[in-house]
Design goal:
Number of domains: 4
Order of helices and strands: HHHHHHHHHHHHHHHHHHH
GO cellular component, one term: nucleolus
Distance between the termini: 51 Å
InterPro entries: Homeodomain-like_sf, Myb_dom, SANT/Myb, TTF1-like
Largest sheet: none
Protein name: TTF1 factor
Oligomer: single chain
Helix content: 55-70%
GO molecular function: chromatin binding
Number of helices: 19
Radius of gyration: 23 Å
GO biological process, one term: termination of RNA polymerase I transcription
């Protein structure tokens, strides 16, 4: 299919498709579109977020079966072919002959790219080497000074995974504060987010004369742009004293607080309504694990609220009202909330 048709058809399965590059859309049209349509016929929605245990097991099974039919003797050779330059040509030929892309994604309703990244994380022996020694940290700083953000090159030199070296460098490159956020840090975070969002908006829509004349004017954007796909490593650099995961967590908490502002009565009523709807929706899903919940879809159904807000509400409900919740399964937690807490909230509303 042509690019516009592919983008239009993929939007049914991927709401944020407008933010995906043309080259990625072409790849998804070949690898994912037919799979997504097949899953739709089976009544299965395309998923994002953390992989469930069931999906991890299916992925292990897929990789094992591919190794069996292709004759390749290790998952590392299949997923990290560049580490075996002498066998590279043979491995790539076997991957093409035995449809590697299709085989490892069987039975997993996710974009192929996410499945591939998950497989690389699960089967990379360099991922499970424990804590970094002081000597390794110094090596990492030295290699970064030599090669910049070429994490593939650095991972080869250190025999660690790309993700591992990138995240570790993020933590050690400067003095990181692990205590409470100061007012100055929070202001830096807000300014950093504003800068990257403004740049993103201008790249998508083109910078207008008014935006150039008034660089500090108020910026109005869709709420989703404040919740997803922000360049956290860039934001980390602008904040300076926190690494990217801290920035992301703090920003989500700021959004939750912002959403809860307003008149007290309106806030109370809206909060009750959200809790009631959340319990009902989660109960109706009949899923076995919280990781199987499509929080993005749930947020749209409840009324355009961020996933972080919903997950925080669910956490507070189970911790505050479900006795011994740590020992209960997700269905048991939902049964309790539906049977005992829901009537109380409805009466209060």
């Amino acid at each position: 299919v042509d690019l516009d048709t592919a983008r239009r058809e993929l939007k049914e399965f991927i709401p944020h498709v407008e933010n995906i590059s043309d080259s990625s859309i072409r790849k998804m049209a070949g690898r994912d579109l037919a799979r997504f349509k097949q899953f739709k016929k089976q009544g299965i929605a395309v998923k994002f977020g953390r992989f469930t245990q069931k999906e991890n097991n299916q992925l292990r099974k897929n990789v094992k079966e591919f190794l069996s039919i292709s004759g390749i003797d290790s998952a590392e050779k299949v997923l990290f072919t560049f580490r075996y330059p002498e066998d590279k040509e043979t491995i790539n030929r076997l991957k093409a002959e035995h449809q590697f892309c299709a085989k490892i994604s069987e039975g997993i309703p996710r974009p192929w790219r996410l499945i591939y990244y998950r497989a690389r994380k699960m089967f990379d022996p360099n991922n499970y080497k424990g804590r970094y020694t002081d000597e390794e940290k110094e090596q990492l700083k030295k290699y970064h000074a030599m090669h910049g953000n070429d994490w593939k090159k650095i991972s080869e030199l250190m025999s660690r995974s790309n993700l591992s070296v990138a995240m570790k460098f993020s933590e050690i490159k400067s003095a990181i504060n692990y205590g409470p956020w100061t007012k100055e840090e929070i202001q830096k975070l807000k300014h950093a987010v504003k800068e990257v969002v403004r740049k993103k908006v201008e790249m998508e829509g083109g910078s207008s004369p008014s935006s150039q004349e008034q660089p500090d004017r108020d910026l109005w954007v869709d709420r989703e742009k404040l919740c997803q796909q922000l360049p956290w490593t860039e934001i980390e650099t602008k904040v300076g004293s926190r690494y990217w995961r801290q920035c992301k967590q703090k920003w989500n908490s700021i959004l939750v607080k912002k959403m809860s502002k307003g008149q007290q009565l309106h806030r109370l009523i809206k909060g009750l309504q959200n809790k009631i709807t959340l319990i009902k929706r989660l109960y109706e899903m009949k899923v076995e694990d919280a990781n199987e919940v499509n929080w993005q879809e749930l947020g749209d159904a409840i009324g355009d609220v961020p996933t972080a807000y919903l997950q925080l509400q669910f956490y507070r409900l189970k911790v505050s009202f479900v006795p011994f919740w740590q020992k209960k399964s997700f269905p048991e937690i939902m049964d309790f909330l539906f049977q005992y807490k829901l009537p109380e909230l409805e009466e209060k509303l």
